[in-house]
Amino acid sequence: KRQVGIEYENLMLDKLDAAGVPYLSEMELMRRGSAKTPDAVLPVPIGVNGHEVNWIDSKATFGDPIAHSRNRAQLQGYVCRHGPGLVIYWFGFVDEIQGMDEGVVMMTEFPTKVVQVPVGPVN
Q1: Can you tell me the distance from the alpha carbon of 39 to that of 28, in angstroms, rounded to the nearest whole number?
Q2: Within 13 Å of residue 103, how many CA atoms lie on the same side as its CB?
């Protein structure tokens, strides 16, 4: 199970690389002393389907209410530390968990359209 999780996490990081999105990986964050980290933190937020995304967490599982309830405290910790983010449930999820957690958007694959969110003053 852990090996499958690592494979999907690497797939997500490869897609971030291909999209040209800068990120700090979970390993890099741990080296810097962060204890609880998502799989990737984005120093420059991206927009995904109208949502701001500052971090991405990869879940190589199906997101049902029971599985998601085990992740809720973890995800809310990420929102508190890093702002809104994205969870990819690679094997799908039930619609009722979308929107359960403020600041967390869910998808079943890496987004096909990623928009860089402007940072700093806008003139």
Answers
A1: 10
A2: 15
pLDDT of residue 3: 83
CA distances from 46 to 3, 16, 19, 96, 101 (A): 28, 11, 11, 25, 19
- pTM, entire model: 0.90
Q: What is the pLDDT of residues 73-99, one digit of tens each?
A: 999 999 999 999 999 999 999 999 998
Q: Which amino acid type is present at position 16?
A: L
CB atoms within 10 A of CB 30: 12
User: Is the C-alpha dihedral spanning 12, 14, 20, 23 positive or negative?
Assistant: positive
Q: By the 8 A CB rule, do 93 and 63 touch?
A: yes
Alpha helices in the chain (DSSP H): 2-19, 26-31, 65-82
User: Band of the pLDDT at 121, cuts 50, 70, 90?
Assistant: low
Instruction: Write out pLDDT tens, residues 13-31.
Output: 999 999 999 999 988 988 8
